[in-house]
Specification:
It is built from 2 helices and 9 strands.
Length: 194
């Protein structure tokens, strides 16, 4: 799901197809009490930030200089227990846009959680930009894999890829033989018998 918000590109004059990570100077995660709507927000001014805090009953005492910085906010929406986390896994400047990738991390199976409605959120301060901001939800969530597990998965994917390529070659060879035999049958049936 992609959601584009606000503004015209300022520094995009042509398509560069480049991608540069944007550092997050400050990040805070938490739970808003009770049920709440999910949403993604770009707060570029102090007025937007004050309204956002008032509407969500949020009191984050960060001193943000909106001449230099802006705030990215992701709210996951109502969850039936504590222990859920919202994570901004990547922010990049790409082709005249700011791309924000976020994920939801559910509680671990053995984690003790409070049975109360929560609304997990993450706020991140980044450099001010007038470029459009595009949000996408991470497909697999933000998970850290041990190196050995990572290499095992890469090896497994490589082996599957080689097997798939072998099957494609065998299929192409079989289709070529079928065409050759069909052509041979067509030519021999078209020739008159002596």
């Amino acid at each position: 799901m992609l959601i584009a918000l606000t503004a015209a590109p300022a520094w995009a004059t042509s398509s560069t197809l480049s991608s540069m990570p944007i550092p997050q100077s400050t990040t805070v995660r938490g739970d808003l009490p009770g049920p709440g709507a999910s949403g993604v927000h770009v707060l570029r001014t102090a007025g937007q930030w004050q309204t956002f805090q008032r509407d969500l009953r949020l009191n984050w005492p960060a001193n943000i200089d909106f001449n230099r910085d802006m705030l990215i906010a992701v709210l996951l929406g109502t969850r039936n227990s504590s222990g859920y986390k919202a994570v901004i896994s990547d922010i990049r400047a790409t082709d005249g846009m700011v791309e924000v990738t976020y994920s939801e991390i559910p509680p671990q199976a053995n984690q003790t959680v409070a049975q109360t409605l929560t609304n997990p959120y993450v706020l991140s301060v980044i450099a001010q930009s007038q470029n459009p901001v595009v949000f996408s939800r991470g497909h697999f969530g933000a998970q850290t894999l041990p190196y050995t597990e990572y290499t095992r998965l890469v090896r497994q994917i490589s082996e599957m890829s080689y097997r798939l390529e072998d099957e494609r070659r065998k299929n192409a060879l079989a289709q070529g033989r079928i065409r050759d035999l069909t052509d041979l049958l067509t030519r021999s049936s078209a020739q008159p018998a002596n």
